[in-house]
Design a protein that fits this description.
single chain, Muramoyl-pentapeptide Carboxypeptidase, domain 2, 6-stranded antiparallel β-sheet
Length: 364
Amino acid sequence: MSGIEVCRECYVPRHITSEHMWLNSGAIVQSRDSRNRMIFLESENLDPLFRGIERIIGMPIEHALVAAKRKAVRAYLGSLMPEMTKEMLRRREIDWKPVNDGFRAFAGMSGYGRYEVVDYRHEQDVDDYIIETISEPYSVPLACGDMLAAFEILFGCDLGVEYKEIRPDFFELKGFVAGHPEELRGRLQFREFKLKPGDIELERCSSCGGPAALSDYAWHPDRGVIVNRQTGKRMMLTGMELDTIFTELESELGDIIPRAVIEAQRRFVRTGFYDIEGMGTRGMREQLAIRGLGNILELKSNERGMQIRVENAFLHLMVIGLVQGLYEYAFNLDTHLEWELSDDGELEVVVIPLDFSFENTATA
């Protein structure tokens, strides 16, 4: 992976800025297929968020995390690979290892961690398997989904996965031939987002054309790690699977899921994990846009409450919990929450301190 080309000006891998577009609408999309929205997000938030959701609803969600990530990444990698290459892999006319090296390079540039193949059997029968290790995974269940997606393409069969922790931040993953549960087949549908044009003018790198703000992050593709130079927080670039996970869980379990996602995010953010200085419109607007979470149209915040409107909102449940948690952290108080997401993707959130009545929201 040391041969990865980076921009000489901003030091971001050129694959990142050539394969993805940061739009003026507050969205990040895949260059080859603008229907595929992406997010650039703090990854240290993920596993604590998932555990928080499990505690709130009283049941595990790991199976849904693995399944959604597997399906999303398989579709994404499939879109990058010519059909002829896929067919040659199925016929074993080309070696899968160089292709896997490309997948590993992509994972490294995206901040997923470092994968290494340690053992495998590939005879195209039910006894096939693959064993990998991953160091510094951005999320253990999502890393399992990534592995499944890659090797289902490479081996041409459905796989199951199991994992074990070898030492802190170092795991062994084993993929084995197995069908997927019938209840998961054909599900996990990805939503279509019709984006409204915006007016966000992100400063651009004069060399690669990507957002200049990406130079605020240190990219370590050999480790599979991206770090915010200012906050020290770890980042990752990923697709629509988190939105799909929450949508699917809601269809299974009902309204408890949106409440659980928002509450788990609120609790985590209130610990001080995020710190957006002053919560001013410009700063927070750019922060959401560089993450691909939407375009802030309006933001009012003071000791009486907070009101925010976001167009082209993505991962709206996490955004709602983020907004509420940030406000509570900034003012050190508990709040009441109201929110609404329109059919065209406009999110409105109102956060009011518990000792203020909702009649005062107009002055917040």
